[in-house]
Amino acid sequence: MNVLIIEDEKPAARRLSRMLDDLDIKVNTMLHSVSESIEWFTNNEHPDLIFLDIQLSDGLSFEIFDTITIKSSIIFTTAYDEYALKAFKLNSIDYLLKPIDDEELEAAVTKYKNQLPSTQSLKVDFEDIKKLLINPMDRVYKKRFTARVGQHLKIFSVEDIECFYSENKGTYLHTTDNRNYLIDTTLESLEDELNPQQFYRVNRKFYININAIKDIISYTNSRLQIKLHHFNEQEIIVARERVKDFKEWLE
């Protein structure tokens, strides 16, 4: 099987490649932008299956189809439910919501194999897609968070937040002046709100700011311990299954 990944976030592309490798599927090529993909498709034989991120750094991946007639089957990957659920009438096999789950990936691959996809070209109604996407080009992340302090609302820039963490069913942010504040959200909701270049979820309880890291220490069972400049109320441990991705994120 000839497989291609198109994903603008290189750590996410590498992670997906490793997950496919665990399913005995070798990824032949990884591309990271609309322009790079158009050039590649122009000069190479098209693959059997494409894992395609909907929103790339230089535009929507659908723009590739404006220039190139692609006959491959596609599994879309996206962090945005509305893109996947509102549908684009394509011959796509499936879609996967980020962060991609091992079982869902395996189910999508199995579905692809069982369907014996035809070689008919994709038919895309781009006008309908454009109507669905009001502001499609730029992925916008939150720059500020608020917390209620008594009768007041306090505003925090993400630059002043060392980490977010969960405790006793609440979600807190910890600031660079060494204070904790309860906020009205969940760690799961932060997935789409935080810039992944600046914040990383090291385990089920913590998102950390890369600029707040003071030290990284080897820990038991091939894990890592993170020391932040100010937060020291709990140990921050990078889960073993996240260590490789975490190291790639640091780069």
Automatic annotation (TrEMBL):
<feature type="domain" description="HTH LytTR-type">
    <location>
        <begin position="145"/>
        <end position="251"/>
    </location>
</feature>
<feature type="domain" description="Response regulatory">
    <location>
        <begin position="2"/>
        <end position="113"/>
    </location>
</feature>
<dbReference type="InterPro" id="IPR046947">
    <property type="entry name" value="LytR-like"/>
</dbReference>
<dbReference type="Pfam" id="PF04397">
    <property type="entry name" value="LytTR"/>
</dbReference>
<keyword id="KW-0597">Phosphoprotein</keyword>
<dbReference type="InterPro" id="IPR001789">
    <property type="entry name" value="Sig_transdc_resp-reg_receiver"/>
</dbReference>
<dbReference type="InterPro" id="IPR011006">
    <property type="entry name" value="CheY-like_superfamily"/>
</dbReference>
<feature type="modified residue" description="4-aspartylphosphate">
    <location>
        <position position="53"/>
    </location>
</feature>
<dbReference type="InterPro" id="IPR007492">
    <property type="entry name" value="LytTR_DNA-bd_dom"/>
</dbReference>
<dbReference type="Pfam" id="PF00072">
    <property type="entry name" value="Response_reg"/>
</dbReference>
<protein>
    <submittedName>
        <fullName>LytR/AlgR family response regulator transcription factor</fullName>
    </submittedName>
</protein>
